[in-house]
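Quick one from the shared queue. A colleague (R.T.) flagged RagB/SusD family nutrient uptake outer membrane protein as missing a structural entry in our internal table.

Convert sequence to structure tokens.
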Amino acid sequence: MRTNKFIYISALCIASMILPQSCSKSFLEQKNTSGITEDALFKKPEDGIALVTGIYNTFHDMDFMLKALWYQANFLTQDFQNYGADVFFKTYEVPTDFGALNTFWTRAYQGIARANSAFPIITKMENDKIITAELANRLTGEAYFLRGVLYYYLACNFGGVPLELKIVTDDGRHPRNTQDEVFAAVAEDMKKASELLPWKEDLAAVDLGRANKGAALAYLGDAQMWLKKYPDAVQSYQQLEGHFQLESKFLNIHDFNNQNGKESIFEVQFIAGADMSWSHTNNNHWLASFGMPEEVTQFGYAYATPELYNSFETGDERKAATVIGPGDTHPDPKCQISKYPRVISTFGGINTCGTKANPWKGSDKARSGYYGIKTWRDPNVTGNTGDTYIFSGQNVIMMRYGQVLLSLAEALHKSGKDGDALDIINNRIRKRAGLGIASGADVMSILLDEYRHELAGEMSLWYMLRRSGEHLKYVKDKYDITVPAGKDLMPIPQVQIGLNQQLLQNPGY
């Protein structure tokens, strides 16, 4: 897009602002080096690392992570609803001037532009003997991976978008490519990345949280699924076997003390202990307090539905780790409800999410009384009235092995191997959940329910449903809602169409 034209300048700015530190998350910390000159840049290995770190920085924006990824992954399924100004997700009438989508579009293309600028710089640094071939390969792999990830989520949200796979030298006003063309480009980037990146277990401790070979293969498999290349997806997903494991307990996946755990494939790194007030930096986020009850944090904008709560089978251990209802205790002892300041002052320190007689539905009783747990795991977030401890430094998992296994099961099913698909569902996913063999003979229906109960409240459920082609039927079956034609996609931001009149709006908007 138009911002790509100025990418080299952007690359210099990012490299001068973000320098790697000595522990895994702190490679995100910013250091002011405003007096640096271009001649001093890219003269040592740390400069190349900082250059690529700037691409990761794309994710560090509240609207990007919350309102343009978490919203769509959850509100469009109808299992979660919004109390605040963005209630239009309930009717799928997302306005074309919804600011978060423009933020997402703009930042995604900035990240893509940073990746495009990094390739020649890394090559030059290798040719000049500033970095080793090994480091050059890793950094190049990270840049391919991050560019592919950004296009992946753009296509998940909007369908087809303009593909910019090199530094733009014209005015940047290009038409949209098709959705299939975008996912084909994602697949190519992930293939290249998978050939260059190390496995997660081979990363040094200082690099934990950066892209790895397994992450590239997981997104490669997902791109192949979107392209309906199911045997290829099976092959991609199966390569992760032995490199990642399911957590023994579902509750452990999002544990604050288990970030970058053995099930996590790719998660956006945030910094715990950073300023968590309104003057915070974008190294932390608002997902936690946004979805906690108003009675706890003053906010409580995102709440779950009783339909989600009641949809879990008896004995499904995922329920308590996904959604909390009236009278329930928080399943994580680090987040005891009785210790939150507002609960102490207003409710005498009860240790449940309201009570069945008096559910926590907010001051105007407009919420459901049910709330997601997966983002409510950081014990530091209290939502105090003094505008402190509102933001969280906990990482956000974007891709994990449980999701990959379900995607593998779907790929096997669509390759005509229902027995193998059911083996994964029953003996790995459902077994970990404390359940027996799934009932029914419709493998796709079983898969849709497993996607729901495995991924609700995370960053991917709607995308998995839309990818399956069963999303419209799913919403009709679960909520008796008919999605208006074309509204399963997000609208192209109107401001972008104003800047680039070659962009055509999605049908229905």
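The two ends are 22 Å apart (CA to CA).
Confidence is low (pLDDT under 50) at residues 1-24, 29-37.
Added to the table.
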